[in-house]
Amino acid sequence: GCISLNLSPVPQPIKPNMPVPPMTSDQEELISALVHYQEEFEQPSEADIKRIQEIGITDDDSEDPKFEHITKMTILTVELIIEFSKRLTGFGDLLREDQITLLKACSSEVMMLRAARRYDAKTNSIVFGNSYPYTESEYETAGLGFSAPMLFRFCRNMCRMKVDNAEYALLAAMSIFSADRPFLREAYKVQKLQEIYLNALSAYVANKRAMNSFSIMIGKLLNVLTELRTLGNLNSEMCYRIQLTDKRLPDLLNEIWDVTPK
Ligand SMILES: Cc1nc(-c2ccccc2Cl)n(NC(=O)c2ccc3c(c2C)OCCO3)c1C(C)C
To answer: Which pTM was predicted?
Structure first.
């Protein structure tokens, strides 16, 4: 006999004018803790910058001081990202090897989010640390040619969306707790943790932005996570290109970004 299609109307999804459920107190506490840690680990301290200046990054002092400055700031920023991650609820309960898997995979993505937070639209520059602002062209000449336009386009987009501190912190947490990173042993635990931050982001955006822009905004914010994947992959590609030049990345970055030295 022919197949019978059930075309009766499905129960209506959320009506546009449906009152927005308030954030739970747990979600409010989660978000204020995230924003607090985001601030605490936002910038390397003067002492950190001084410490890293002293360490000669590469034995053969690569003649490119700008490239060295970027690599040194990146080392300090990666250290801050690790400190931020360690304070996320549930991170400490994961297997140590899964913690490392997550940090290796998210570090370049969270770096991009941090670059966007340091972006200044007026001067179209990124102020890394409390030091020298990098304009797009300076970024290009620092040896990061192809990536500069993409990085600055990402920064301008985040600026245009007026992503606030809570949304940045929640996006960082969702990038950290990505269950589809390769070689995760307990991906289901990471998935459960990411859901906590996704629900908090959804409740936050629903309560902050007028209802009609909620679905647009949450869609744009989740799209940022996809963009971060692309940027992170391009960072890996950049690492390999650097391998082919006379420049050398510090061991920490080669290790965390899985760049197998030739
Ligand atoms: C030491 C160092 N520090 C960075 C970095 C600097 C700022 C933000 C994020 C990153 Cl990952 N990068 N990566 C980039 O600067 C980078 C690489 C590729 C990109 C990109 C950036 C920022 O952004 C756009 C997509 O492609 C590097 C190396 C690898 C040079």
So the answer is: 0.90
